[in-house]
Amino acid sequence: MSENLGKLHGGEIEWAISKKYGIPIKKVISFASTVSEIQTRKSHKIISKFNLLHLYPQKYPYKLIEILAQGKRDLRSKIIVGNGSEELIYLFAQAICREEVIIPIPTYSSYEVATKKYGIKNKFVRLGSDFDIDLDKIKDAVSNKTSAIFLCNPNNPTGKLYSKNSVLELAKLAKEEGIKLLIDENYLWFTEKKNRHSNIGLVNKYPVFVINGMSKFFGVPSLRLGWGIGNQEIVDEIRKFRVPWSVNSIAISVAEELLSKYKNDLRAYQEFFEQKRIFHRKLSKLEGVHVFPSETNFFFIKILDERIDAKDIFEELAKKGIIVRDGSQIRGAGPRFLRVTVKDKGKNDVLVKNLEKLLSL
Fold first, then answer.
1. Whole-structure pTM value
2. What are the residues facing 341 on neighbouring strands?
3. Torsions phi, psi for 263 (to 5 deg)
4. pLDDT values of the chain reduced to their tens digit, one per residue, 361 residues
5. What is the SS3 assignment for the chain?
6. Structural contact between residues 351 and 321, judged by C-beta atoms closer than 8 angstroms
7. Which residues, in sequence order, are CB contacts of 195 under 8 Å at separation 6+?
8. Long-range contacts of 4-10 (CB under 8 A, 24+ apart)
9. Contact 359, 288 (CB under 8 A)
10. Contact 29, 324 (CB under 8 A)
11. Any residues with CB less than 8 A from the CB of 51 and at least 6 apart, and which?
């Protein structure tokens, strides 16, 4: 097992820490994983009732697609369901991307991993000083070899939600240049309603593919269910590469029930936003750090004390079974950054207390 555990994905690192330090997996507290805890119990209750394992899953899950289309008939043929949104990232890379792509950084690492798998060159463009889109830099990076742009909105790890106008300008650029734009909206669930805006409306006019999934907000990453809503040409091309029955019946049925009811679960939203506000306030009071504003369920933190770096904090916390995301392992971030996810009050307080001790040494 590699000693540089900070390089591991949030879905792997918990098991690695448990093994290395002999800490039972149930006692590991992961602030590195961006999976929410607010819906998990409800999801597990639904799964326990499932009794259709004797049937093959639907290749075209009509009911789920109706829910995702939200009554818009013109979207039905533009929806593709996948084995998590991760499968759709890889399918997009395989089916759509050619020669080179543009990836604004720092952002989700799978865009780079997926495109490299198919021999595609990555052009990395740094986000602005406030982690906003630098449209001029992206324009300058576009060449006759560019096939696509990847955008995470809200962005992981920065927590930044890009304005509707910024994304629209990027979609216009994609159309003008004959390239495709993937927009990852997995963290939009955690944005307050007054600020929340999906870019699905762009798919009818622009070469855009919007992906989302169940893992983060509903707390069911093992379920593996995601979806993409896109320009018809993009979706039709991706379907050619999709493996039959890649999405199982449990995932489809649980998604149908959760998605049809989540809007009425105001208590879960209220609980999350309250814990987020409290967590942000406590983190911001720590000396030697700057906590960036976030429209997601995690905070991006800059370490101001030059005597301490992210790797030091990661390793010291890991020994106690507490995991944070080490920014030195995120392209475009660096050794002075951490990402931590909002948990419940007790777990949040454990992290704040331990960070306070480490930062005061």
1. 0.91
2. 298
3. -65, -25
4. 345 665 666 567 888 888 888 888 888 888 888 887 765 555 555 655 566 666 778 888 999 999 999 989 999 999 999 999 999 999 999 999 999 999 999 999 999 999 999 999 999 999 998 999 999 999 999 999 999 999 999 999 999 999 999 999 999 999 999 999 999 999 999 999 889 999 999 999 999 999 999 999 888 888 899 999 999 999 999 999 999 899 998 899 889 988 887 765 667 778 889 999 999 999 999 999 999 999 999 999 999 988 899 999 999 999 999 999 999 989 999 999 999 999 999 999 999 999 999 998 7
5. CCCCHHHCCHHHHHHHHHHHHCCCHHHCEECCCCCCCCCHHHHHHHHHCCCCCCCCCCCCCHHHHHHHHCCCHHHHHHEEEECHHHHHHHHHHHHCCCCEEEEEECCCCHHHHHHHHCCCEEEEEECCCCCCCCHHHHHHHCCCCEEEEEEECCCCCCCCCCCHHHHHHHHHHHHHHCCEEEEECCCHHHCCCCCCCCCHHHHHCCCEEEEEECHHHHCCHHHCCEEEEECHHHHHHHHCCCCCCCCCHHHHHHHHHHHHHHHHCHHHHHHHHHHHHHHHHHHHCCCCEEECCCCCCEEEEEECCCCCCHHHHHHHHHCCCEECEEHHHCCCCCCCEEEEECCCHHHHHHHHHHHHHHHCC
6. no
7. 161, 295
8. 4/329, 5/314, 5/318, 6/310, 6/311, 6/314, 6/315, 6/325, 6/326, 6/328, 6/329, 7/329, 9/109, 10/34, 10/35, 10/325
9. yes
10. no
11. none
- Structural domains present in the chain: 5-30+265-359 (3.90.1150.10), 45-263 (3.40.640.10)
Amino acid at 331: R
